[in-house]
Every structure is written in structure tokens, then in C-alpha cells.
Amino acid sequence: MKDTLSRRLLPFYMKLPVFWAFIVVTFLGEVLWIIVVSKDHRTDLLSWSCFGYALGIVLGFMQGKWTSRLWKQSYMRVLRRELTFWEAKGAKTLTLFTCVALGLPIFGAIFLETTENLVGIQSYIFGFVGAMNVALMLWVRRIPK
Fold it and tell me: What is the pLDDT of residues 3-41, one digit of tens each?
């Protein structure tokens, strides 16, 4: 096995068409969600949705960049069975960040049962997943075929 990473070695969920599908689905989900929220005629719902989506984009892109750096450094060693991803430098911190970034808002929604919070959290998740996939796709595009 060569020491250089190529797109051919990546798993199915790291292929460009899969990234495009995830990005399109999350964007369409957010658009449909905004349409549903705007039917309520409360402007604070729309502002909560926009705030949640923007925050999700920022944190999701950070998570995607962090994941791409981890894969760039360790994926070939994982394929050669020299280590597992869990043993790779930064993997535990990345997992903790992802669990907090996605789990904390969802867990908080259980206790804060207001419509405004639920609207913002749903948009946040759409933004997080979409931006994470954009960051990973940008990295995969730089990898030689």
C-alpha cells in the first residue's frame, strides 16, 4: 500500500456525490423548515431559526475541518492497522466536541420546551450537518483521484 492518500481509498460516505446529497438535503430541510416557521407569523421564531442556522454553520464547519485534519494525518495508518481512529491524536477531543455541539442543544430542548428554542435547535442541526459536510467535501476535493 502506498503512503499517499487517494480518493479511491476513502469509504463510501466520504465520496463527493454523497457529500453533495447531504448538503442538498440539509439545505432543502432548512428551507422547508423556514417555510413552516414563517407560517406562524411570529418574527422571533424566524430570528431564532436564522441564529440557530448561523451558529450551526460555524460550529459544523469547525468540526468538519477538524475531522479532515484528523483523517489526513491518520487515515493511512488506520488502513494499515497501525492504530485505530480512537487512538489517533485529537480523536477523543473531536468526539467530545461533536457530542457537546450536537448533544447539548438536543438535551437542552428536553428541559426548555418553548417553541423558540425548538425552532432554533432544529435550524442549528441543519446548519451543523450541512457545514460539516461542506468542510469535509472541500478537503476530499484536494485529495488526488
Answer: 677 777 777 888 889 999 999 999 999 999 888 888 876
Distance CA(144)–CA(131), nearest Å, equals 22
Asked if residues 64 and 140 have their Cβ atoms less than 8 Å apart, the reply is no
> Are residues 141 and 4 in contact, defined by beta-carbon separation less than 8 angstroms?
no
8 Å CB contact between 127 and 57: yes
Q: How far apart are CA 97 and CA 87, in angstroms?
A: 16
Grid coordinates given for 125:
442541526
Cα torsion for 111, 117, 122, 125, to the nearest 10°?
A: -80
Give the global pTM: 0.86
DSSP 82: S
